[in-house]
Write a structure and sequence with these properties.
12 helices, about 70% helix, five-stranded mixed sheet, about 10% strand, about 375 residues, alpha+beta
Length: about 375
């Protein structure tokens, strides 16, 4: 595992990812000594030496070592376990540490194979050094159960960290696509707005230049028309620049998906390929934003559906969630949402039975005719 991946894993784990907390399990190394009636001094000395050698290796495993360094640390801790077991059966605790280190720092298949191999060697050693088979089975069984739980937990944490990393990449990609979509919208609007206007200005300016020597009055008329067209274009540009602050519907949908995803709410969408006027699109985007905000703040939902279609020449936008429902039609920003829709000739219907989720139905024209 690379340093970066290992670091990500540590960041996503719980208190067990803290080196000092991990040392608390060393108490199980010394536990057999407390129940040993004729406890030899060699067992105590061997346990202390093994602990002194283990602690630096334990901390080193938290410093994102390379693959070879990780393997060396795992083998070192396993060797300490093998060396301590003849003196103190509690040395199997170090074997659990070795298995945990392998699961946390080595590739998954390598970790599992190495853990099985280390466990098998330890089982043979216990069978060889302990006086009674039942004791060997007890010590080996404890390592088998605890080791399996540790490996499963750590591998799950690694999978979760990997999934979170992929999710962050997906979110970054969605943000990028939303930015690209918004830039395309702005470029398209400006092209539609200025393309024709600037062509007219160029043609009339050229014509006025040709008329200056032949028909001064006609040239002045052309210049007045250029001024009129330019002023109209300036007003339209001001409106467009003000509207740029409002996201397009696709960009707002992408932003909504990210916001819901961060709250573990799923968003399903069904969008028909419909051309929408700029002012209508802005109102629909603001409606979607307000609806998603209400879902995040009040609905306690797990799923949101957004559907955009057309019926009898009018747009039909449905935003539904499976939350607790029971919202008031005049609250939660819905009054402002309704006012914006009425201004473009649209309507808003709300169905929110208590405990049955909320469904907003928006009907609006494809474009506003002035």
């Amino acid at each position: 595992m690379s340093s970066e991946n290992n670091s990500s894993l540590r960041d996503d784990q719980d208190i067990h990812s803290k080196p000092w907390f991990g040392l608390t399990y060393l108490i199980f190394l010394y536990l057999p000594l407390f129940f040993w009636q004729d406890r030899p001094a060699s067992a105590i000395v061997a346990s202390l030496i093994a602990t002194a050698l283990f602690v630096p290796a334990h901390f080193a495993s938290y410093r994102a070592p390379t693959g070879k360094q990780s393997l060396a640390l795992v083998l070192l801790v396993a060797a300490l376990a093998y060396a301590l077991i003849p003196f103190n059966p509690g040395g199997n605790t170090l074997m659990i540490y070795a298995i945990a280190m392998a699961a946390a720092t080595l590739p998954m298949r390598t970790a599992i194979r190495l853990s099985v191999a280390m466990f098998a060697v330890m089982a043979v050693e216990f069978w060889w050094v302990l006086p009674r088979p039942e004791m060997a089975i007890a010590y080996v069984g404890s390592v088998a159960v605890i080791g399996a739980m540790v490996v499963t937990g750590i591998l799950y944490s690694r999978a979760r960290a990997r999934s979170n990393a992929e999710l962050r990449l997906t979110q970054d990609e969605v943000r990028r696509l939303a930015t690209v979509a918004e830039r395309e919208r702005i470029g398209r609007d400006l092209h539609d707005l200025l393309g024709h206007t600037l062509s007219v200005v160029a043609i009339k300016s050229e014509l006025a230049g040709k008329l200056l020597d032949r028909d001064l009055a006609a040239a002045r008329e052309q210049i007045r028309e250029v001024e009129h067209v330019a002023r109209q274009a300036l007003a339209q540009v001001r409106e467009a620049v003000a509207g740029i602050r409002a996201a397009g519907f696709q960009a707002e949908l992408a932003a909504s998906r990210l916001a819901l995803l961060s709250a573990d709410v799923r968003l399903d969408q069904r969008l028909a390929p419909i051309e929408i006027g700029g002012e209508v699109e802005t109102v629909l985007a603001m409606t979607l934003r307000e609806a998603v905000t209400n879902v995040l703040r009040h609905a306690q939902a797990g799923r949101v559906e957004v559907e955009l279609g057309e019926n009898e020449g009018r747009l039909r936008l449905t935003i539904a969630d499976d939350g607790r429902g029971g919202i008031e039609s005049h609250g939660n920003g819905l009054a402002g949402m309704r006012e914006r829709l009425v201004a473009i000739g649209g309507t808003l219907e709300i169905d929110s039975p208590l405990g049955g989720g909320t469904r907003l139905l928006v009907r609006a024209p494809r474009e506003v005719k002035r």
